Amino acid sequence: MWAAWTTAAGLANWWWPQWPDTAYTMEAKPGGRWSARSEQAGTGVEGEVLWLDEPHSLELTWRWDGEDVEDLVRVTLTETGNGTTVTVHHRTSKGAIANYRLGWQFVLGNLATALH
Predict the structure, then answer these.
(1) What CATH number is given to the structural domain containing 85?
(2) What SS3 class is residue 6?
(3) What are the Cα distances from residue 100, in Å, to 22, 27, 67, 70, 109?
(4) pLDDT digits 0-9 by tens, 30-74
(5) How many distinct structural domains can be found in the chain?
(6) Residues sharing a CB contact under 8 Å with residue 93, sequence separation 6 or more, in sequence order
C-alpha cells in the first residue's frame, strides 16, 4: 500500500486510469515534488511532500495547474486484520469540500480496485 502512494509507478496503477496519458512524478522525501498531469484531461495537480512516516502516513501540498491556492493533504494508512484503512484529510476552502469529497471517493475506489 505504501508504494501505491509514494512511487510514480504506484500512483499510475490507480490515480487517473481513465486518462492513460497521465504522467506521474513522486519524490517521496521531505521537500520532494509530486505531480499528476494529463493532456487528455486538460489538467494537472502538483505539490511538495512535507513529511513521511513510512509506512504509516504522508503529508503533501496540493495545487491545481493554473491556480494559486495550495491545499494540504494528509494520508494515513492503518493496518487492520483485513487489510489497510486509508484515511485522507484534505484541507481546502469551504466551497471546494463537496468536489474533493467526490474526487477522493472516485480515486480511492480506483485504489481498492487496483489492489484487489
Answers:
(1) 3.30.530.20
(2) helix
(3) 19, 23, 15, 14, 14
(4) 999 999 999 999 999 999 999 999 999 999 999 999 999 999 999
(5) 1
(6) 69
